[in-house]
Design goal:
Layout: E1 4-5, H1 7-14, H2 18-27, E2 35-37, E3 41-45, H3 46-59
Antiparallel strand pairs: 1-3, 2-3
Helix pairs in contact: 1-2
Amino acid sequence: MNGLVTRNELAELLNVSVQTVDRERKRNNNFPPVLRIGTKLVRFKESDVNNYMESLREDNTIN
């Protein structure tokens, strides 16, 4: 990746639909913040995505 992740790439990484990505980014405060490029292009920072995915793994770990 080039440091930026598309909605489609994020959906694939999370194994969810693009619609789920859109829904979660609007309602989940822990979801990676959106970077808007122009008026229509939406990207996510790869580091934010990695941190989010790590937090999901930690939430699913039984201590």
